[in-house]
Amino acid sequence: MEAVSVDRHQKKVQRLRAHLAFLDESGFLLIPNVRRTWAPRGQTPIVRHRYRHDRISAISAVTVSYRRQRVGLYLHFYQEDISQVEVVLFLRYLLREVRGHIVLIWDGGSIHTGQDVREFLCRHPRLHIESFPAYAPELNPDEGVLGHYKRALANGRPDNVGELLDILSRLTKKVRSRPALLRSFITASDLPPLLRS
After folding, report:
1. Which terminus of the chain has a lower count of CB atoms within 10 Å, N or C?
2. 3-state helix, strand, coil in the chain (%, to 5)
3. 171, exposed or middle or buried, with CB in 10 Å at 0-12, 13-18, 19+?
4. Rounded CA separation 168/7 (Å)
5. Where are the domains of the chain?
6. Mean pLDDT for back-to-back runs of 10 residues, the chain (197 residues)
């Protein structure tokens, strides 16, 4: 991000006394995400699974409150791909849960710029949208959250979408109960320091 752009974000947050929210989407497959792991010498670990391409899609946001600098995590899970409709539903949920103005920073994906989303944003002036530079996932703390979920699911083998959804729900409760972990996703990103607080 250019210095001028960062300064503009910071001034907007201070002027509006707004929450910062970093949003992203991802998908979790039933096919295991295989990672290196430990095993007794000479015994190659084997992960048996059903070869199904079913998935859970997630849209989430990491938030930082203006006053108390509290961090939060908001998520919605879907059994279909995320479209403009799901983005609007999630934004409505975020506005219900977070009081005051929100400066929402996301990527320039097409589902963020469609007609439904633009109309929703026009009707809700509490929501102020900014975009990350193109091809810069390292700036988005929510990428860290979704990466954490994928690492936690590694080498697992849920049998069906319901089981995968149960695992994701339990994981969400754990992550939400650990503010230091949530804050670490923000500090580990390549955001300029003044946008991390």
Report:
1. C
2. 45, 20, 35
3. middle
4. 36
5. 3-33+49-196
6. 51 70 89 63 65 82 86 94 96 95 94 95 95 91 92 76 90 94 91 64
